[in-house]
Every structure is written in C-alpha cells, then in structure tokens.
From TrEMBL, chains A, B:
GO terms for biological process: glutathione metabolic process. Residues 111-250 form the GST C-terminal domain. Pfam families: GST_C_3. Transmembrane segments: none annotated. Keywords: Transferase. InterPro entries: Glutathione-S-Trfase_C-like, Glutathione-S-Trfase_C_sf, Glutathione_S-Trfase_N, GST_C, GST_superfamily, Thioredoxin-like_sf. Residues 12-109 form the GST N-terminal domain. This is Glutathione S-transferase protein-like protein.
Length: 264, 264
C-alpha cells in the first residue's frame, strides 16, 4: 500500500493530551510518527485545543454526546466514525489506546500471540515510566517536588539501585531471547512494534533525567543500549519526528532532571 | 452452550502466581470463577508449584523451551497448545492476561468498542490497586513497611484525601453514564466484564485496608457501593468462589490493614 493510499484510508485520529510536554501522550504520538499516520495533536495545534482535553476528563461528565465514558486522565484518543452507531469513539488509558492503534497501524506483531507479548512488554515499560514519576513525587502527586524532596531522595536511591537494573535487565533478556528474529532491534518478532517505541521513549527519558546513572549502566546492557536504542531512534518515521518541532523537549513532566536524584 | 460443553472446550489454563495471598493473581482467578472456567492455580495446589512461578521470572531466563519471553513478575498464565507452533503460550502482566481471557470467556463486552472501554476501565482499577500498594511502600518496594512508616503516613493521607475520592468518583460517573444498559451493575454495556470483577476486587481490598475511610465515604458514591459492589459479589460464580477455600484472605499483600494509615 502506498503512503498516500494509507493516509487516505486512515480515520482522522485526534490525540487529546496536555500541550508542550512529551508526557504520556508521547507514547501515542510515536506510533503515529513511526507509521507516518496523520493525526491531530489538538492541544499543541490550536490555542483553545486544551478545552477538548479538559472536556473529556471533566469531573461532572458521565458520558459524552456520542455515548463515550469519561476519561480518568489524558491521554485520550478521539476517532470520528469508529464509535457506537458510527459516532466518534473516545478511548483513554495509554495501553488501551496503544493496543487499539497497534492492530490498525501494523505495530502489533505478526499474530495474536505476538500481539499479547507486545502488550505485556509495553505495560512493563509503562510501569517503569510510572516508577520514574514517583521518584520526584513519592508521597503526593498533586504537591510540589520541593515539599517531598527528602522522601524523593530515598525513593530515587531505591529506584537507581534496585528497580532500574531490574527493568533494564529484563528488557536486555527479552531482546536476547528474540535475537534470532529481532537481531537486538525488536522486542518481539522481526519488525517494529509499539512495545519498541514505548520502551525507547522511556529510555530516552531516563537518559535525560538520570544522565550519570544511565551512563554508568549502559555497558551492563549491551543489546539494549548498543543495538536497540539507536535502531529504534533510526527508524525512518521516528528519525524525522525527532528533528521536527512536534517532538517537545523533556522539562517538568514525568522525566525531570534533578541532579540530586541522579547517581552522586 | 452448556457449562459442561464449555468446560470441555477450554484449554487447561494454568495460573502462575504466589501462593496464599490474593495479590494480583486474584484478578485472573476472578475471571475464571465468574465464568465457571476450570483452571489450575499451580502454587496454591501443589507444594512445589511455586517452582513454576519462580521459573517463569528467573532472572537468567531469556526465553523458555516453548519460545516464550520471560515474565517481569507474576502473575503469568500458561496455556498449553496456544503458543507458537502449537506449544504452550505464556503471558504475563495482569491487563494483558485479562484482555486475552476476556475475549475467550465472554467478559469483554459486546463489540470491539466495548472491549477497549473494558480494558481502559480495568487498567484504571489496577492503577488504583497500585496506589494502594504504595501507601504502605512509598519509598522502597523491597524494604519493610516499618522502615518507611513516616513516609507511608504522608502517602496514605494524600491517598485518602485526594486520590481515593478521585478514583471512586470516576467509577461512580462511569456507572451513571451506563445506567440505561448497565443498571448500575456493570461499567460497560449490559453484562458482566473483567472491568467489573477487577474493580470489585479492588473495592473489597479497600474495605479491608481502610475500613473507616470506606465507611465514611460509601454514601458519597451510591451507585458504586449501593448497587455495583453487592451485585458483582452476588454473581453466581463469584458468590460460590467467595465461600470456597480458593478465596484467600487479605493479609500482608497489596491490601494491608494498618490502623494508623486509615482515617483517624
């Protein structure tokens, strides 16, 4: 299928997520970008686009005009024409959106077995993502880092010493186990999946947030950092995206660089 | 389809999870029990069953003899005959296992739209489950509660005051939005799904861990506690399960009753 045909047959996907940061919306953006699929990033593309983000998570909402349930939190994805009775479908929860898009955009493996392994590995990468968030917000999500800094120092130490090597070691082993087909480039099978793009983004965020820790650990995980990371980064759609102004820099979102939380 | 026929056509599902506690394995048990589907709970049913649990998450494992990737952590599900080339399939990550079984056991809604809403709501209930775990282990998963009690007091206060009402309010609204079809008994559509069983178990755990907080809040969420909770608990398969010795009591797992973390 030509790129033009593909673009024409895709529905007008609309990502509803906070503007200006990568955040959890980035996992959704990457599957669109990796497959050259057109999408609207509503809050980044129009000044009042954030209203649509706020509307889908409105704490008075029980269902929207198209019969969709409310979203607990962004990201959400709106897909005109794909909901009940031909109305708009709204999905929330990153893994649910990824599994929906994965099947449609060719990022969910060669068969149902691979599709479920891909979902499992993406969930594990997202668990790692959540644990990174908790390093700077260990006791209260809605309060300032400065108000929980003492706890954050403890949490970050445990994360660096115990949790991070456990996750990285796991993904190194998954890549090793799939080496025959995946050549160290793919977690499952012989082609790119949303598990790969999801893990890649978490690793890129870790390099930003904990540069010293990651540098010190890179050689412990040679497949992950020597092959996988640069391979996913070099995928055509990803490579083009990363030099575009659509890729937002890390700042004060999930991945934050507080030198005191990094390896000392 | 008669129950006998159904039982005969299901593969011999094998749950791999820690023995003696409900834990994350409980979400998987509940979908089997709600549908009267036979399964083996390996570590609870045989003395050395725990070896199979340890084997699937062995930190040297890159892939098993049937070509399955390692599990990051239990629960895992082994399904003989459903893997690559007719070998055993092993899946890990609770939401991935639930989405696999949901489709096969009739707990994933009436169509693909409902299947994705169900996955999204189950993921949100599991996020709540994780936040409960973090109330007693805010800074180090592998250390004792007693070594992080000061931080736990702060985390639990934030959980009770901010996070818990946000989650409960969300599910109350989802039930309200689906009232026409679901009558307050189901989160999505007009029949039981794995989102319902998953949320129900988290609520049952919350009642154990934070009895005062839950009692004080019940009337704020009349559909959730007045209709949904007792309705799911009364589903035939669930009801039978809860009085069996297969239902393990809450103890020192995810849901723990520390009076000092409850409402004072």
């Amino acid at each position: 299928m030509s790129a033009t045909k593909k673009q024409r047959t895709q529905p007008p996907y609309e990502l509803l997520y906070w503007p200006s940061i990568p955040g959890r919306g980035e996992f959704i953006r990457l599957v669109f970008e990796a497959t050259h699929t057109p999408y609207t990033d509503t809050a980044n593309e129009s000044k009042d686009g954030i209203q649509a983000v706020l509307a889908c998570k409105d704490e008075q909402l029980t269902r929207d005009d198209d019969g969709n349930p409310p979203a607990f939190a962004p990201p959400a994805l709106r897909i005109p024409g794909e909901g009940k009775g031909g109305k708009s479908l709204v999905l929330y929860q990153t893994p649910s959106i990824l599994s929906y898009l994965g099947g449609r955009l060719g990022l969910a493996g060669a068969d149902e077995v691979e599709a479920h392994w891909i979902l499992s590995h993406a969930l594990t990468a997202l668990d790692l993502n959540n644990e990174v968030h908790d390093t700077h917000h260990p006791t209260a999500i809605a309060k300032y880092y400065e108000d929980q800094k003492e706890e954050a120092l403890k949490k970050a130490e445990d994360f660096r010493d115990v949790r991070l090597p456990k996750f990285l070691g796991f993904f190194e082993r998954v890549l090793k186990g799939n080496e025959e087909e995946g050549k160290g480039k793919y977690l499952v099978g012989g082609k790119l999946s949303y598990a790969d793009t999801t893990l890649w983004h978490v690793l890129s965020g870790l390099k930003f947030a904990f540069p010293k820790e990651l540098e010190a650990r890179e050689e412990e995980f040679p497949t992950l950092f020597g092959i996988f990371y640069s391979s996913v980064q070099g995928e055509k759609g990803i490579k083009e995206y990363l030099v575009s102004d659509r890729r937002k820099p890390f700042s004060m979102g999930i991945f934050r660089h507080y030198p005191e939380l990094d390896r000392q």
